[in-house]
Structure formats: structure tokens, C-alpha cells
């Protein structure tokens, strides 16, 4: 390692006090400067932070945005979400490959460009989309690729690609993003004109226990999909004896088809930060963390500026709004491309500078979370509801929605529809009503809740979006009658295989077997017994996996088997004579032919033909 690189690494570690708990920040800084984190860099970082190289290497290898091999000066990350595929992403990828002379996963010989596929980047309402370093480019076509590369070769700066910026704060000088908010239906709680700090002021007029009681009375439930009562979570954290407590906002919305948090972070950051501050006051926390997914790094400078303005306005920091007994501040922790970090214990591990692997439970985060202290983890939408509840009162919030699902819900609608975007709806609306609003006239299947949710058919469009019926983290992906629903299920299984942390065998291996079983059926080689096998294996994965990823990964297969039984029936058939349709002797002999370096006289029908 040359002296200049060593100096850069030493500076990165010093900027974070050589603290191994800030490993993610250190690695981001080194990756940005050197375009990789190689073995020598890992050794030096380990020495400076008082840890072991194997631990540093474990973190580097876990996150998709870090690499031990040099990336190009410009890294092009093509979104490979199924919505992007249907919008023409494959043609766009081929245009990049042809123009650059490299395939996804490769770097050009001159080190100028790297080309990669990446899962959903939160732009499904304007697909196909791509991240070029931290610059988002949407609505791509093969023709646009030529202009993009011509500009990049000339300027070597992705920022020069930015033309007309999007609406709202997307045109802010610290954002400058070609991203549209696509707010199709604003609502009374979140997407409305309201002063977020009136809720904070109202909260500080109450005692912490009164704030918790107000949140409990509102019946606010977590908007991440599981729906755990927010007030109960806060009370558990407040009642756990501890010298320190933490509030963490989960802004790692990696669920394919979800982009609602992107819009809230762009247009309502003050509402979110006020919600985090109220949560901190209620549970007795002095420190907060916004865990921001790496795909949204283009928003970081804007969010940092918002935090700084709030400090100057005495809305963060010491003695908030004149309360000498209440101090609270927030730092931003960048993620680095790992879907599993949307699970709260994995997110906490990442904040601690570790691999984003889930923790064993119990204890739960509200008892022992970040650095072993009681920790409240809520997502962006949940925390953004809190200031409005404090401002308008729990009965107002409870008056919207259904008996078991109070308030409103943000929906990210994308896919085969005329009006993709964000819809704020009261809980209890039917799928059919949403499809009408979004202009999905030929919808044949709907993904409710993203990859971990359910895929339902036309017979279920009467069902309501609420915790009592169809619970959803917010993603609604529409598929018209021209789409192959089994291909959609296979895509989601590929996603789970790729995003599994690999810690537990049921998830690491079981999902691979599920995908193979599905492929067997898709190839016309399935038998009725295969359906029983898929159900049994799914039950095992759900029951024995360590975290939420494994608990929900079989859903694409289970829900399509439930709601599209005729599709499966048409693909499977009884085989006479005890023959296995899925056994291909020629394929089975391929490995033996390679090892023996010759063909089979008995089993090779082409034996004797010229190679």
C-alpha cells in the first residue's frame, strides 16, 4: 500500500475516532476514495480500530456496495426489480453492455466503468431506473444510454447528467435529483400542509408517560407490515431499567415495489425528525439514528442540512424548546445495500459496525438493542404519524380507518397501471378501489406488500387493505393478464436467495430448493406430489428460520398456489409407469462426461457424431 492510500485510510478512521462501532462510516469513506477496500486496507483499518481483519473483511463482504476489488470510477447499478424488467430494463442493460464492452459484474479494462445489477432502488414508479454512483436516472431507454455514456466519457462526472430536476424538494440545491414524487393522492395525516413542530410542542407540554398514553390511545401500529402497536413498544422500552436508551428510524425500505419512504424523506423530513424527537422524549432517549439505505444516499446532504437547521432552531440538541431536562440529537447511518437490514435486529447490528445479521430473540430490542441498551426501532411512516397525533389528538387519528387499523396508510403503487405513485388512503379501502384510482384496468394479479407479502388474483380484489384482512408494508405491484405469474414468483424467490444473510440453514438452503421445485413445475416436469413438497418445505422454512426474511420468503410460492391453483394444475400431471418427469439422464451425465473427457456409448444418442 502506498503512503497516500495509507494516509486516506488513517484519516477515515480518525474521522470516526478509530471506533469499530462506526465501521460502516469508515468503510464508506474508504470505498469512496479508493473505489475498493482491499486486503491491505482491511488490515490497516483493523489495526487502527483495535479489531481483527477477519471482522473487517466480514463486514466488507456482507454489503453489496462495498468491494474488495477495485470498482470503476463510475459504477452503474442497473435496477433489476421485476417492475423494471417489465418496463424494458433488459434492453437497457444490453445497451450499456454493448456500449461499454462489459457484462454486469465486470469493470472496464481502463477502470473507468463498472456495471452491476442491483435489486429495487426505490424508483418503481419511474422505471427502468439506474444509479450512476449516487445519481439517479429514471425512465431509461436504450437510446438514452448512448447519450448518458457520451456525457460520462466527456465529463467523467455523473452530476453532469442531471438535467430537469423533479418536483418538490427534488429540485433543492442539496438534492438536485431527476426524480418525481408522483404523489397521486395526498391525505389528511402525512401528505398535507401542516407544521410538524406543533406536534412536538404539544408533546413537550405533557409528561413522557402521557405521550405514550396518547400514542396508545391512537391505536397507531407499525407501518412496516408487522403492525406491532407503537405505544406498547415505547412503553416496554421506557419501563426497561437503563442508563441509556436509543431511538432508531428504519429508512432501509428495500422491499421491492416500495418507495413511500423516499417521498417522505424528500418532502417531509421535519415531520420524521419531530416524530423521532417525540419518541425520544417519551422513552427517555438522548440519541437517535436515522438508518438510511445506500440507494438513497443522494438525499443525505439534504437530510444533514435539515438536522443542522433543527439544531439551530433549538428543535434538536441540548434543552429542546427550553426544556432543560430534555436533550436529544440524531445522526445518519448509511446502509450499504443489504435487504436483510430492514429487519430491526439486523439493522441494529449494522449500526454497531457489524455484518447485518439478525440477533437472537429474546431479548428484544426494546430490552436490549443498540449497544445492549433499550432501543425503539420504528420506520419512517410510523414515526411521521406521531407529530400529527400529538397535534390533532388520538380520537382524530383513531377516527380514520377501521376498528383494528387506525389512521391512513401510504401505498406505493407501480407495475401495469397508468398512474403509478404514492397514494395516502384510509385503512379499509379495497384493492379494486386502488386499482381504479391507479388506472390498472387489466389487472390479473396484485403483489400486496412486496416480495414478503402475497400475490393475489382477481377473485381477491374485493379484499380490504388493513391489518384485519390484507396487511401491507405499502407496496402494490400490478400485473396485467399478459404476465406469467410463475415468473413473478420465481423472481421473488431469486431475490430472497440473493438477500438471505446465510446464517441459518432453513433460509440459506431451503429457499434454493423452493426455487428449484418451482422451476421444475415451470418446465412442465412437475407432478402433484411436488405441490405437497413445496408446501411442506415452506412450512419448515417459516417455522425454523431465524428472522423475518425466512418467515416470509415462501410467500410468493404459497400465495400463488393458493390464489392461482389453475395455473399450477395446468403445469403438473400424473406420470404413468412410475417414471419421474423431472429426471433428465442426459443432464445427469454431463458432469461425468466432463470428468471422463469422453461421451457415453450407451446413453448418448449423439455418440459418434462429430463435436
From TrEMBL:
Entry keyword set: 4Fe-4S, Iron, Iron-sulfur, Metal-binding, Ubiquinone
InterPro entries: NADH-UbQ_OxRdtase_51kDa_CS, Nuo51_FMN-bd, Nuo51_FMN-bd_sf, NuoE_dom, NuoE_N, Nuop51_4Fe4S-bd, Nuop51_4Fe4S-bd_sf, Thioredoxin-like_sf
An example molecular function term from Gene Ontology annotations: FMN binding
NADH-ubiquinone oxidoreductase 51kDa subunit iron-sulphur binding domain mapped to chain residues: 486-531
Gene3D superfamilies: 3.10.20.600, Glutaredoxin, NADH-quinone oxidoreductase subunit E, NADH-ubiquinone oxidoreductase 51kDa subunit, NADH-ubiquinone oxidoreductase 51kDa subunit, iron-sulphur binding domain
Cofactor(s) the protein needs: FMN; [4Fe-4S] cluster
Family: Belongs to the complex I 51 kDa subunit family.
Protein name (record): NADH-quinone oxidoreductase subunit F
High-level lineage: Bacteria, Pseudomonadati, Pseudomonadota, Gammaproteobacteria, Oceanospirillales
